[in-house]
Amino acid sequence: QVQLVEFGGGSVHAGGSLRLTCAASGRSFSSYVLGWFRQPPGKEREFVAQISWSGGSPRYADSVKGRFTISRDNANNPVYLQMNSLKPEDTAVYYCAARRVGVALPTFTDPSEYSYWGQGTQVTVSS
């Protein structure tokens, strides 16, 4: 079984920064990819960013490109989502997710493509 735990959410003013952390445990993840999703109030869950298990091949949604950075130092460390220049529309519950992958590494933007999810952490950005 796979366990994902997110933390680091909170409340900030527009223009501020937050760093989210996702700790993964439970089994070998060498063939997995990790993603961040978010669900704004009253809206569907949406893709934010993705990174390979080893910390390479970062991918981003257009709405966060240039402001958010997904990173991982190595396969034994947590996955981080550094969020800068936050906007009120970034307000959402942020989730970490994982899924197995093959040799190819497309960008998995549909939440249904992920098998494992964390409990979520709230990010609130005030204007």
Architecture overview:
With 127 residues, this protein is mainly β. Helix content is 0%, strand content 47%. It contains no helices and eleven strands. The protein has strands at 3-7, 10-13, 18-25, 32-39, 46-52, 59-60, 68-71, 79-83, 92-100, 116-117, 121-126. The strands form two sheets. Strands 2, 4, 5, 6, 9, 10 and 11 form a seven-stranded mixed sheet that branches. β4 (32-39) and β5 form a beta hairpin. The radius of gyration is 14 Å and the shape is globular.
Structure class: mainly beta
Please tell me the overall pLDDT. Answer: 93
Helical fraction:
under 10%
What oligomeric assembly is this protein in?
single chain
Uncertain spans = none
- Give the termini distance in whole angstroms: 40 Å
Largest sheet: 7 strands, mixed
Q: Give me the count of strands.
A: 11
Gross morphology is globular
Core attributes:
127 residues, mainly beta, seven-stranded mixed beta sheet, four-stranded antiparallel beta sheet, 11 strands, 0% helix
Please specify the SSE layout and strand pairing.
Blueprint lengths: L2 E5 L2 E4 L4 E8 L6 E8 L6 E7 L6 E2 L7 E4 L7 E5 L8 E9 L15 E2 L3 E6 L1
Parallel strand pairs: 2-11
Antiparallel strand pairs: 1-3, 3-8, 4-5, 4-9, 5-6, 7-8, 9-10, 9-11
